[in-house]
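Record 1 of the preview.
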Amino acid sequence: ASIAICELYGMTRDEKFRKPAQLAVDFCMKAQDQTLGGWRYKVGSGSDTSVTGWFLMALQSARMAGLDVPSGRLELINKFLDKVQHNEGREYSYLIGQSPKVTMTAEALLCREYLGWKPDDPRLIDGVKILLENPIDWSEANTYYWYYATQTIHHFEGDAWKQWNKVMSQA
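->
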């Protein structure tokens, strides 16, 4: 809902959506785990990569719409991602201490892009290579992964995007 209202305000600039969108952002800030830096399904119950990614997408939409998103709180997200990263930020797990999963890698790399990683970052380059090694395959359907991998590689652009998009378009 937060993503939707922030996108709606950002696309229309209709003032009747500004206050509800900012209230959604304010809720996101209140729900953020101040110790770990991310979010979980229940407020105050820790952080996981999946829910954190959804909240960051809402905050990214809010930032693009010109809403007030405290930058210091975004740095907390980086600190959480640092705790679930593996291989120096090239792969990610769902929870701290778990093994990396390609689905969480795709989502976390998108988060890193939103938080400022550039396409020339070696960790992002290597992470995208991992995603490209796991293309869309209907015999092992994972639409959650495909969603995040597509966004991550689209933002990454270049030959990686051409390669991914060719397979995605055919699928």
